[in-house]
Amino acid sequence: MLSFIIRRLLIAIPLVLLSSVLVFLLVANSGDPLADLKGRNPPVPESTIEARERQLGLDKPLPTRYVTWLGNFVQGDMGKSIRGVEVRPLLWQRLKVTLRMVVLASIIAVILAIGAGVLSAVKQYTPTDYTFTFLGFLFLSMPVFWLAALLKEYGAIRLNALFGEQVVYTVGAETPNLTGSLGTKLADWAGHLILPTVALALISFAAWSRYQRATMLDVLGSDYIRLARAKGLSRSRVMTRHALRNALIPLVTVVAIDIGAVFGGAVITEKVFAWQGMGALLVQGVETSDVNILLAWLMVTSVLVILFNLIADVLYAVLDPRIRYG
Asked: What is the per-residue pLDDT for 296?
């Protein structure tokens, strides 16, 4: 297993380098970082524009800028934003907020998808199957911002009115300047996490549960499952050891590929619930054409997507040992 992981890590290195080239070219050609200075009225002094140009390294050739940026990025230096703020601590602070929601939503969505997919397949064409099918298509057809708004209006606001106090929060990732014990802070985080996490998890669960149902049906109709039943193995052993284990492999692929889409959904969800996470940072970077923020944001999310795919590769090897020797 260790040699398999090392091989996958070595394959991931060129992928990260290729991603860095694409990210740099994308940001370098996305607009003029000096446009806000050049468009001001009254005009700013030429020396100010030249100083910003030197600060961002725009006075150097593109390959030189790329090598300099990549070297600094590898050493943890992501530069400063156009407002003079260090990008690395800013990005880390926002990333912690977003990952809190994305990781929890992904775990909940995977558990729900596996449970609903397996139950639908085992109880095919029964009321249980029809119910999960209806819910799957309902959430699949619903944009994440619309679901988030519905949860806000019909979930949180009315629930809080019913209890007569703030139980579920609708704005922000945490209460500002909150003091108290660790339990108080954890309860505050949980109250803020509920709605965005549920919105993101339900959207992801919808597609993944349909995929799990289809792969489970395919596996249940295969010859080796019929053979296992004919040998007299118990139903639970056939389902968990032979059917579910093989049906999970395609789902791992889909979840790994969809991680980028989950981050995209998180950006929109954060906007609805006014979270100051990666989504707000991306909007800030785009609106101000802040090169260093955009480069850091895109590069970190690229690394995260590659990392999740690496984890998926390791899970393949756990679920199907033959892959380790492929």
From this structure: 92
33 with 49: CB under 8 angstroms? no
State the Cα–Cα distance between residues 214 and 244, nearest whole angstrom.
12
The tokens for 50 are 């030249």
CB 159 within 8 A of CB 168: yes
Distance CA 300, CA 257 (A): 16
Looking at residue 20, its pLDDT comes to 92
Tell me the C-alpha distance between 68 and 58, whole Å. 12
Burial 93-116 (b: 16+ CB within 10 A, else e): ebbebbebbbebbbebbbebbbeb
Helix, strand, coil % over all residues of the chain, rounded to 5:
80, 0, 20
Dist CA 230 CA 259 (whole Å)? 40
Separation of alpha carbons 202 and 286, rounded Å = 29
Amino acid at 226: R
For the chain (326 residues), the mean pLDDT of every run of 10, in chain order, is 78 89 88 75 78 79 89 88 86 89 89 91 90 89 85 80 78 78 82 87 87 89 86 84 83 81 81 85 85 90 87 79 65
- What torsion do the CA atoms of 147, 273, 262, 102 make, to the nearest 10 degrees? -120
pLDDT for 324 equals: 64
Positive or negative torsion for Cα 74, 79, 85, 91 = negative
| Centroid of chain to Cα 217 | 28
* pLDDT recorded at residue 323: 67
Q: Which residues contact 60 (CB under 8 A, 6 or more apart)?
A: 68
Tokens of 90: 């800013």
* Contact predicate 141/266, CB 8 Å: no
Phi, psi of 80 (to 5 degrees): -115, 150
